[in-house]
Every structure is written in structure tokens, then in C-alpha cells.
Amino acid sequence: MVTxxxxxxxxxxxxxxxxxxxxxxHEERRITxxxxxxxxxxxxxxxxxxxxxxxxxxxLRATIERILKRRLLxxxxxxxxxxxxxxxxxxxxxxxxxxxxESVVKQIEEAIDLYLSLRLRILSKHKFPESVINEWTYxxxxxxxxxxxxxxxxxxxxxxxxxxxxxxxxAVEEESPETKNAQVFIAVRKxxxxxxxxxxxxxxxxxxxxxxxxxTLDYTVEHFIKGxxxxxxxxxxxxRERVYTYVKxxxxxxxxxxxxxxxxxxxxxxxxxxxxxxxxxxxxxxEKRYKSISMRVRTAxxxxxxxILFTKVAFAFFVEGTYEKFVYGHIIWESIIINTSIPPLLxxxxxxxxxxxxxxxxERIFAYITRLLYEEDPVLGNKLVISKQxxxxxxxxxxxxxxxxAFCLSFGAIIYVLTxxxxxxxxxxxxxFFLAIVSFLSYRxxxxxxxxxxxxxxxxxxxxxxxxxxxxIRVGRSLTQGISKINIFLMxxxxxxxxxxxxxxxxxxxxxxxxxxxxxxxx
Length: 523
Description:
mainly alpha, 1% strand, 21 helices
């Protein structure tokens, strides 16, 4: 028997918003690029992206930021930067061909000039570190431009829906409702939208000041310091990790929900009101996502290995080889081989232990989705209550001592084994350096399989891994994030290799257009 259930008011609003068709813009001239140049530029871009370990969702924004820095460094502005920026993104196939019109280029010009004006006016009005405002300017500017080029309307609507569903399931005692709401907002942006630091800053900036326009510029300049401090306070809030973990464990259902809403557009209302048909669609969407895990793991491993090879191995050879040549008179190749072979080997081992979710997981996702659709106040599991009184000082001290013990035990065991293998101090340092980074990257790869998993199984094995390996993983995260900010190799690569390549691509793109125009004159 077919059962029909009415959608909740929140779900109905989401469906209506997704099915609403935006008014089409008038016909205008589109930005075009040569397909031959595009082929070579896209190959180059794949290699360049492999040198940095980033989530797929932020690669476009990071590329925009990289291009902006290169083109604005020597005094560029909106008019000299916007169109070349769009062409570079079209060359690299970040944007569909013939998808960007002249009006969008004009909007990008205005956005660039607006953020450059914001930067100059903040520096002139406030005593603010120039390096900090430079970083924020590029973060905000690149994020804003990405949304001009790729609005991701469906993603934003579902993220907003997720926030409204979960915000009342979290309670933060002894804090204002604004702090609680901000923490849920940040957690949703990180867990579902996969925002990086730049995107988080942008979204919080827009929440505080509104989107930057000529009308909001004066207010933003006047109150920037206050808003900046409030954003930092929310991003560094002591309970943020607990809120993020709570939200992340409920994200799988929203990913599957997003797939269904995207793939069944035009048939949503009849599908979503039929619970039996919906079950079939949910199971089908889950299976499709599960099958994609192995491909994503393989891609992540390849990118991670390339990332290590291009940014770390050369450094290891230079430092370790030079030290051994100076101290021992020759290079100890055994230690260098071990230091450089462990990373890919560890990643391959990790991939062998990755297991995809089963049918029971799909059933839990279906249960969550039905609550999202049909219940006016859906609750996805137990609510989260964060209280400052929940953790007494004595327990905090004991936990810190245990964490320090785990840290010493993990790294002490590694150093002991390396000493028994006759590794010198430099070889040990480089081995630990590599191990920490690769452990973090391997942990990130293992998380791919858990993106679509609802619930978490805690066993002795999980406790053992957390106790012994989490200190190494956390050190690896700090190293990876820190080194990425001061990666001299990539800085040199961008200015001495990428810049000439892009100018060469621009020359050939114009040359092919010139030849095409001359050919048309003969017709």
C-alpha cells in the first residue's frame, strides 16, 4: 500500500526553494578560450594542485587566491585582473566553457577594487597589522569571487536547512544564544560545506557585516576591529570541537539527502511524499556513494604521495644527505630509503583496512531523512549539552597528564626503535617528521570512508589507536598546516614557473584567436 505523508514546513520551504527557477539573464558576450591551450593548462593545474593537500571543495577558491596574489602583487587592480583571472580558470577547466559572461567579469572587477579599498581604508584608520589584513583580504576576496563564478545555490540552501535543523539540538550553558548559534553555523560549514579557514572567515564576515558592497563599505571599515575580534572569538571558542563532532556525525544523512534533491529535481514533491518510493531512492543513493569511496581513497593517496614527493623529499635529501656527508664522509642510503619509502607504504596499508558502510547504515540514513522530511522538530539522536561544570579541574589535570604520557610513549617508542636501527639524530628527526605528516594524511584518507557512516563504533581497537597514534597525528596536522603557509618551494614555483607558463598560455590563446579571425576573413 502506498503511503503519502505531508512534508514539514521547513522541508517544504527547502523543496520550494530548490524548484524555484531563477530568471534567465539577457544574452551577452561570453568569455571563450582556445581548446588546445585548455588541454595543456588543465594538465599543468592537476600537477600544481597535487603539490598542496586540499579538499576538493576548496580547490577553486585556493586557485583564485593564488592567481590574485600573483596578479595583484605588483600593483594590479580589478580591471587588469578580472578578465585574465576568468581566462585562467577557463583554461584549467574549473568553469564550464562559454559559461561566464562579460557581466560576471564586471562584477569581479568591482569586487576586487572593493576589497582593495577596504584593505587600504582599514590600514589608514586602524592600527592593524598589515600582514593580517593582507591575509584576510585575499581570503575574503577569493571566497567572494568564487561565489560570483559558482554560486552553489543548492549546497547553500541545504546547509542553511541543516543549520536550522540542528541549532536547537545543541545547548551551550552559560553562553549567549548567539554563541551557540555561531558554533552550530561554523560546524555545519566545516562538516557539510567543507569550508576551509578562508571560507569560514568569509561566511562569518558576511554574517557580521553583510556582503561587502559600496553601501556597506563605510560601516565595515568603521566597525572592522570589533567584528574581527568577534569572529576570532567564535572560531577559537573552547567548545567548538565538541559541537563540530556532534554535527559531523549527522552529516551523512544530509549528503545523501543532497544527492536525492539534486538528482530528482522536477519530481521532488511526489517522490518525497511517497515514503516507500523514497526508501528505494535512498538505498540507491547510498550504494552509489559507497562505491565512490574506493575511487576517492585512491585519488587521495596519489595526491598525498605527490604532495610529499614535491614538498618534502627534496628537503630530506638535502638536509640528511648533507649532514651524513659532512659527519660520516658518505651518505647512508639505507636510512634515506627508509625515510622516503615509509610514506607511500603506510598509506597503502591504511587503504587496505578501509571498509565501506553496509545496509544497516543505509537504514539509519533513511530513518534520519524521514525525520528531516516529515517531522516539524526533527531530532537526530541525543541532544548535545555543553556545560563548563561538566568537567572539573581535577579531571582536566588528569586528562592532560594522560595525554602527555601518551605523547611521550608514542614518540619515545619511535625514537627507541630508530636508535636500535642506528639512525643518527638527523635521520630520526626526518623520519619522525615524515611519519607525523603521513600519519595525518593517512588519517584524513581513512575518514573518507566514514563520511557516509551514521553512528560510531567505539571498541578497544579505537581506544588503542586514539591513545597511541593520535599524538603523532596531531603533530602531523600542525606540521602540515604550518609548512603549507611557508612552503618556499611552492612560492618559487608560482612566481618563477607558473607565471611564465600562464603568460605563454595567454600568448597562444590570443594567437589562435588571431588566426581564427584571419581565417574567417577568407570565407
